[in-house]
Amino acid sequence: MPGFEEISVYLRGIFALVMGRREGLSWLDVSAGGVWRSFYAIVWSLPALAIGWASFRLSFLAAFPAGTSVGAGFFVKLLIIDVMSWVGPLLIIAILSKPLGFSDMIGPLIVASNWFSLPALYFGAVPIALELILPGSIGIASFLMLVVLLASIFALFRIIRAITGDQTLLAMALTTLFILPAVIIAQLLQHAFGLG
Length: 196
Hints:
Layout: H1 4-18, H2 32-37, H3 40-44, H4 46-61, H5 72-97, H6 106-133, H7 138-163, H8 168-192
């Protein structure tokens, strides 16, 4: 599994891409091995994801009588939902890459999006943690979450635009493909698991 030093190099590359500098790709391992290795970002993101699970648990239990509890299976379901929401859009984009003519970009897109998800999730965990620690801070937490969400979408677009060589329409389409399927997959799985 990549260590902190290695990941810090990748994050420097991600920051360069967000700033519109395509040379940020040189900081990323976009080889076939690097593509698979980038999925370790999921493992590194688990603490941030767990904060979201804790918040979801409280919201879920609020609909049941006091004293109701959930077991380990509840968190396994949330893990499956998050992993499928992460991987699903990547599979869709990979399938569409050849017929739509951007197959040469698929490796960099997967690697960059995976490593970008790491800081994005940790930034997103901050307002969730704030709400867990200070229940009365829901207004501030919601505002911060909206800011993080919009900033993350914009940063993702900037990364994709840099990778595609400033092809704005393609970058917009790919950004949409990263976001909408993830939301749909999460909602469908929550319903299927009885969590929605």
